[in-house]
Specification:
Enzyme class: hydrolase
Helix content: 25-40%
Pfam family, one: Malt_amylase_C
Organism: Bacillus haynesii
Strand order of the largest sheet: 11-10-9-5-2-1-13-12
Number of helices: 16
Structural class: alpha/beta
Strand content: 15-25%
Largest sheet: 8 strands, parallel
InterPro entries: GH (IPR017853), GH13_cat_dom (IPR006047), Glyco_hydro_b (IPR013780), Malt_amylase-like_C (IPR032091), O16G_dom_2 (IPR045857)
Family: Belongs to the glycosyl hydrolase 13 family.
Shape: globular
Bound molecules: 1-O-alpha-D-glucopyranosyl-D-fructose
Radius of gyration: 24 Å
Number of strands: 20
């Protein structure tokens, strides 16, 4: 089967915040259709659409109540079929979000399951008796705070939910559940969907003996290693591959929470017939203090060396087996320039710098809506955040457990809250950034007059055109897709530099990830080659790497040395 996904660049859409075609303040599928030419003009080949299925929207659609129909605010099934068609007409592909670690508690399966202990759907989910004292079956925590178990009066048992209590976890041990999942996948793939991003796929296999976590602190509930990589994980994925995926020329990317590179190889080694690639969290966790009761909100400063080490570990481990994803942003992560860079006076240079680091690497790049115009974190008072992860964490950490002050929590959310990625797409400098003619479901970022698509398209030096170039270079230079990766200057605290090599071609990428100037010295083995500039965010046309290069703040460049016989 062709490996088209290796040469593809993916554009991720969070539909409720992308473009609202009917003025209800909520993005929709017709809105996506209207903006397809924009995405095409960027050069992306694949669209990943976050969940659009029927849902009570407790977790913005990651709580699905019907996998076969589109949520009405997004449109109808016919709109979805039209979208698939319009994407294909433009020579692009579309992947959807497969959220099958859990359903909504309003899914018909769960409504049945909770009715009685002998209901035929009881085993679609995990139900357990309370401990002798009436407490939860074990000390597993929910990723959205509190216990992972909720008591249901009707049958006197607890059900399991890794996320909110409105997201009960499916029991993949039950063959009927797996059959349902394969059927719904087939339903959409037969209608033209080109693949799946698989939500928390790393958690579908549970440790069904439900062991308590051992804790050395006073945390009542723990989220840890039992929450992912359960004993039957790869068996289930292989079955899914056999039953469904192998029948289509599709693309698959698993959200593999809790995975290291060894686990990643298992998922993505083609000979194992599982998935094409996975999302790792390791490079996104470098600004989190590990093992804190405050979880992701316990921040530590950005360290370029940690970023280099982590990304290099993944580049190296998956060099000859498997495949990487490349991402800094998505709907769960804040804006990278606000998180690790400079989103003020050096915003443009900084956005281009991070883009260069990522798009020069080996793997499939993912661009999150707005990243291509350098959107920033928003400014909102705590009360204005909409995300349930933030609301629950506030209640637990600040109000109940008092492990964080309100001020520290506010600071952490201003950096890392998921809503920073979810503010409406900034199309122009008009009211609500041109996202909607009505009232947006979440306030537009106040900087929309300065940062928007219209402005980006009018400025030939914009971040948008820089992304367009990066994508174009990937299409023209196989070394960017297939070249072997090697880190340079590993201990340099400012510069992220590496080479890529493929069939006699060499690419050198160097990025100053700091606000100060930095001196770049190429290692001696690179000095024999003749280098041409492919890309520079400081408009350098020529670069002599034989001397030292005085790199400007957030300066980035990509130079290439062509195969000797092709240049002669
Ligand atoms: O995220 C899974 C996950 O473990 C984290 O990314 C988590 O949501 C959070 O960001 C931790 O801070 C996936 C989806 O991407 C996310 O939007 C959903 O809320 C979650 O699963 C539940 O479906």
């Amino acid at each position: 089967m062709s490996q088209w996904w290796k040469e593809a660049v993916v554009y991720q859409i969070y539909p409720r915040s992308f473009y609202d075609s009917n003025g209800d303040g909520f993005g929709d599928l017709q809105g996506v259709i209207q903006k397809l030419d924009y995405i095409k003009s960027l050069g992306a080949d694949v669209i990943w659409l976050c969940p659009v299925f029927d849902s009570p929207q407790d977790d913005n659609g990651y709580d699905i109540s019907d996998y076969r129909s589109i949520y009405e605010k997004f449109g109808t099934n016919d709109d979805m079929f039209q979208l698939i068609d319009e994407v294909h007409k433009r020579g692009m592909k579309i992947i959807m979000d497969l959220v099958v670690n859990h359903t909504s508690d309003e899914h018909a399966w769960f409504a049945e399951s909770r009715k009685s202990k002998d209901n035929p759907y009881r085993d679609y989910y995990f139900w357990k008796d309370p401990k002798a004292d009436g407490s939860e079956p074990n000390n597993w925590g929910s990723i959205f705070s509190g216990s992972a178990w909720t008591f249901d009066e009707r049958t006197g048992q607890y059900y399991l939910h890794y996320f909110s209590k409105k997201q009960p976890d499916l029991n993949w041990e039950n063959e009927a559940v797996r059959r349902e999942v394969y059927d719904l996948m087939t339903f959409w793939m037969d209608r033209g969907v080109d693949g799946w991003r698989m939500d928390v796929i790393g958690s579908i296999s549970k440790y069904v003996d439900f062991p308590d976590y051992e804790t050395d602190d006073s945390r009542p509930y723990v989220v840890g290693r039992y929450h992912s990589n359960g004993p039957r994980l790869h068996e289930f994925i292989q079955e899914m591959n056999r039953e469904v995926l192998s029948r289509y020329n599709c693309m698959t990317v698993g959200e593999a929470n809790g995975s290291d590179v060894e686990e990643a190889k298992k998922y993505t080694d083609p000979s194992r017939h599982e998935l094409n690639m996975i999302f790792t969290f390791e490079h996104m966790d470098i600004d989190t203090k590990q093992h804190s009761p405050n979880g992701k909100w316990q921040m530590k400063p950005f360290d370029p060396i940690a970023l280099k080490k982590t990304m290099t570990r993944w580049q190296t481990a998956l060099m000859n087996v498997g495949w990487n994803t490349l991402y800094f942003e998505n709907h769960d992560q804040p804006r990278v320039i606000s998180r690790w860079g400079n989103d003020r006076e050096l915003r443009k240079q900084c956005a281009k710098a991070f883009a260069t680091v990522l798009h020069g690497m080996k793997g499939t790049p993912f661009i999150y809506q707005g990243e291509e115009i350098g959107m920033t974190n928003s400014k909102m008072p705590l009360e204005m955040y909409d995300d349930l992860e933030i609301k629950n964490a506030y209640r637990e950490l600040v109000i109940e457990n008092k492990t964080m002050t309100k001020e520290d929590f506010r600071k952490a959310v201003a950096k890392k809250g998921r809503d920073h990625a979810r503010t409406p797409m900034q199309w122009d400098d008009g009211k609500h950034a041109g996202f909607t003619a009505g009232e947006p479901w979440l306030a537009v970022n106040p900087r929309y007059q300065e940062i928007n698509v219209k402005e980006s398209l009018a400025d030939e030096d914009s971040i948008f055109y820089y992304y367009q170039k990066l994508i174009g270079l990937r299409k023209q230079n196989k070394v960017i897709v297939y070249g072997d990766y090697r880190l340079l200057l590993g201990d340099d605290p400012q510069i992220f530099a590496y080479t890529r090599e493929y069939q006699g071609e060499k690419l050198l990428v160097a990025v100053n990830l700091s606000e100060e100037k930095a001196l770049f010295h190429a290692p001696p083995e690179l000095l024999e080659d003749k280098w041409d500039v492919l890309l520079s965010n400081y408009a350098r046309e020529r670069l002599d790497i034989s001397g030292s290069i005085d790199m400007e703040p957030y300066e980035a460049f990509m130079v290439i040395s062509r195969a000797k016989d092709s240049t002669s």
